[in-house]
Specification:
Blueprint lengths: L11 E3 L2 E3 L13 H14 L1 H9 L5 E2 H7 L5 H13 L3 E6 L5 E6 L1 H4 L2 H13 L1 H17 L9
Helix pairs in contact: 2-6
Length: 155
């Protein structure tokens, strides 16, 4: 892997790093355009806020304020951005009603519903392993603090 600043037609962009390859060699299997798009989608649905929104919408259609109340720590802006991206990906639908005051409902699309088993598994796993994870973090942090730094010039 070589990081370069110029991009040529035969270079593949992976994140902010370019992978150089010859024009006649095939792209590695995990660097195909489909794999890159799949990673982009996985990044979207697996981020912490998207998982929470999908999990909340399992209970049915909700308004923005209901979602915000149900997701601890999410800001108004972050919920707005997350909902828009999930809507763009076809996972969440947004329904506006022409009433006063304006009413907007969010729900999972049929494709979004297919994610429920996966998100439920992730959320359940996280909730059931909170104590073990906290113990592991505490142990790691303690060990990181007690390890003496390398002498200058040795690292």
């Amino acid at each position: 892997m070589v990081q370069i600043t110029l991009r040529r037609a035969h270079d593949r962009v992976i994140g902010s790093t370019f992978w150089r390859r010859s024009m006649d060699s095939p792209a590695p299997a995990d660097h195909t355009p489909a794999a890159c798009r799949a990673r982009e989608i996985l990044d979207r649905v697996a981020d912490k806020w998207s998982l929470s929104v999908i999990y909340q919408l399992d209970e049915g259609t909700k308004r923005f304020t209901e979602l915000k109340r149900g997701i601890d720590g999410i800001s108004h802006r972050m919920l707005t951005v997350t909902l828009r991206e999930l809507q763009r990906d076809g996972i969440v639908s947004r329904t506006m009603y022409a009433v006063m005051p304006p009413r907007v409902d969010y729900s999972l699309t049929p494709m979004g519903r297919t994610l429920l088993a996966l998100t439920g598994t992730f959320v359940t796993w996280a909730e059931s392993n909170l104590d073990e994870i906290e113990t592991a973090r505490t142990t790691y942090d303690y060990q990181a603090e007690t390890v003496s730094p390398l002498p200058e010039g040795k690292g």
